Amino acid sequence: MNKNTRISVSQLVCLLLVSRMTSAFTASPASGIAAGGSGLLLSALLQAPLLLLLFLPTWWFGRRTNRAGTLDYAYVLFGKKGGGVLAVLYGLLCLLVITGDLLRFQTFVSVALSPDMSRVALAALLTLCVFFAASCGFQAIARAAGVAAVVMTLLLVFVALTLLPEMEAIHFLSPFYEGTESVVRGALMELPRCLEVTVIGLLLPYVNGNAHKGYAVWTGALSALLIVMQATVTGVLGDFADEVRFPFYAAVTAADVGFLQRMDIVALAVWMVALFVKMAFYGTLYMSAAQRLFGDRHKPLLGWAGGLAVLAVGLLLAGPVAKTQPEVAAPVFVLLAAVFAVAVPLILIAADVLQEKRRRRVQA
Question: Is 345 in contact with 61 (CB distance < 8 Å)?
Fold first, then answer.
């Protein structure tokens, strides 16, 4: 990203919120996300302090380096080769997230909408639009995220209020019905799926204001929205939420609004816009990392290369990943969170401390 590129703290919050809520909308019991049960209401509440805890290495790094970006500072500490290695890792991370969203999009379309839709054509069109939007700049994506976040929040609240008459109190059992461990386990399962914490270190120097405070606001807003979403699913579907592939979407289809008889169509349109914004957001981060490696002259070629790689992998893995997602996704998410949210900031801090000690020895 250009050094003059800046977004506000509120835009940062919206970007992170849209990114995470897009995944929550199509969460399913099969993937271990947002499964039915009032216990996950407490799990969502517990998620906020856990996310803050996971953010501590990045917060420490930002305090020490006066909010430098992790990739930028890697080039300062390790030079072109060392910084290039981290740029490759960040680029692959962003492409992996985009590919995961493309796979989620294909699964949702085939299961919830129509299996007869052309999966290849839809995936190709979405990928093309995403990488074109990513080339338009970070600030444009941030502005779009602001609109998408407001619309998603209003939709979620509107659906919850509309479905209040359909909710059954008997569905809300004690959160500790299956024990305290189930509540903690639910929060821990959700934690690595918040991959936004893996890229927040890249964004620190591009935020006008306190990015750390923005992250804290995001964790609180995220927990609140997840609680509303989970309460809606639990109140309307009860134990049946464990039997459907996309519980929140199934709950939305139950909404009977006079002037919007098919509320699911509105929710689907909002989700599509939010998914596009999220993928473009990570596409922008990929382009930034790739340009650090190859320079600005190759920007169009890098966009095409990234788009083709995402499309090819997304189409090849659509079938196998749909069957093995629960077993494969969780370990991958844990590894990514451990590397980019914990290891990378701590390694940069350690290297900075060592260099500072060497400078003091030379001066002495």
Answer: yes
Report how far Cα 175 is from the mean position of its chain's Cα atoms: 26
User: Which residues have CB under 8 Å from 250's CB, separation 6+?
Assistant: 237, 241, 244
> Three-state DSSP class for 8?
strand
Positive or negative CA dihedral for 124, 129, 132, 133?
A: negative
Q: Are 288 and 202 in contact (CB under 8 A)?
A: yes
User: Is there a contact between 279 and 101 (Cβ–Cβ < 8 Å)?
Assistant: yes
Cβ atoms of 271 and 25 closer than 8 Å: yes
The one-digit pLDDT tens for each residue of the chain (364 residues) are: 665 578 999 999 999 999 999 988 887 664 444 444 666 777 778 888 889 999 999 999 999 998 899 999 999 999 999 999 999 999 999 999 999 899 888 888 877 777 677 778 889 999 999 999 998 888 999 999 999 999 999 999 988 888 888 787 776 766 655 656 666 766 677 776 788 999 999 999 999 989 999 999 999 999 999 889 888 888 887 777 767 778 888 888 876 665 555 677 888 889 999 999 999 999 999 999 999 988 878 788 888 999 999 999 988 887 665 554 544 566 788 889 899 999 999 999 999 999 988 888 887 6
Contact between residue 299 and residue 284 where contact means Cβ atoms under 8 Å apart = no
On whether the CB atoms of residues 20 and 196 are closer than 8 A, the answer is yes
SS3 163: coil
Bridge partners, 301 (sequence order): none
CB atoms within 10 A of CB 3: 8
Cα distance between residue 16 and residue 7, in whole Å: 13
φ, ψ of residue 207 to 5 degrees: the values are -110, 125
